[in-house]
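does this look right to u?? aspartic acid version
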Amino acid sequence: MSRKRGGGESRRRFLGGVGAAALVASASAKGLGAQKQGELYPFGFVIHGGAGTIERGKMTPERERAYREKLTEALLAGYEVLKKGGASLDAVVAAITLMEDSPLFNAGKGAVFTSAGTNELDASIMDGKTLKAGAVAGVKRIKNPITLARLVMEQSPHVMMVGDGAEAFAKQQGGVTFVDPKYFFTEERWQQLERRREEEKKKKPLKTSALERDGLLLDEKKFGTVGAVCLDKAGNLSAGTSTGGMTYKRFGRVGDSPVIGAGTYADNQSCAVSCTGDGEYFIRSVVAHDIAARMLYGGKSLKEAAAGAVEKVGKLGGGGGLVAIDHAGNFAMPFNTSGMYRGSIGPEGKPNVQIYKE
Ligand code: ASP
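got this back:
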């Protein structure tokens, strides 16, 4: 095979045996455009449910089981779409919708609270075939922001819509489920906000130095954003991300998740990426596109590119991780925190879920 092979995670590809390996080899040698009709890619699907301080010692067996079950369910939802020859984007939306509906994750139902006690949700999606993208930020009444991001991509000439305007667009389009903002209330997230408010009261008044501001961000180690990246049988890549942001964020703050190129990116020529972590650092490092660029212009393997991008975020002082898949089905799930809810599934249909550093 002419492709570079890295070690570790990305060496595990979604290959269904020799036949599939031969198809990938022919695909990478000829380029995607030259693929003959009938040739299929070894589809693959990778998801995350957020990175952060996730430690074995602090997790109850029940809670761990609940996370593993939901991640497995989300992987299988994507797999069902892909197995039948369904589109990459459909698999991404199926899995993210499921995770948005679960209070376990900081997206949709389990969204964290802003410092003002409100929930403001962000999401984005990108199609690697057309480079079309859609995003929403600061929506408060949309049950599944990922579906609205897709509508922005497919039914508007725009890429990003925010707040009331995004919700008005959703009304006009129809087919989007609206909920009362109370729907997003969960006791656990509220307690997180209360604890955070207490911590803030004990702190000295905020100085304006960058270090102080950074410290404020890094104190909150509970992420939980969800994301999915996918390669379908037709060789199309896509990526999606959905989040409630970060606990105690100022209202109006927008993180990396809805920013195309930062939290989400997909290009059939290189890879699809979905990030999670300290959004400000991911925006400043333009992480998702950085990985595609390292591959495309720097000739790096997916694994090298993804590791390099996470290292850059870490050097700036940011915590988090990402999931990524390339056009040959290699995947990577690097993070610099103690854990990241994550999982992958390939043509063999066996979900592989991980939580901690293994
Ligand atoms: N990246 C998200 C944000 O900054 C948070 C997360 O991934 O948990 O809004």
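The domain at 44-186+215-356 is CATH 3.60.20.30 (Glutamine Phosphoribosylpyrophosphate, subunit 1, domain 1). idk if thats expected tbh
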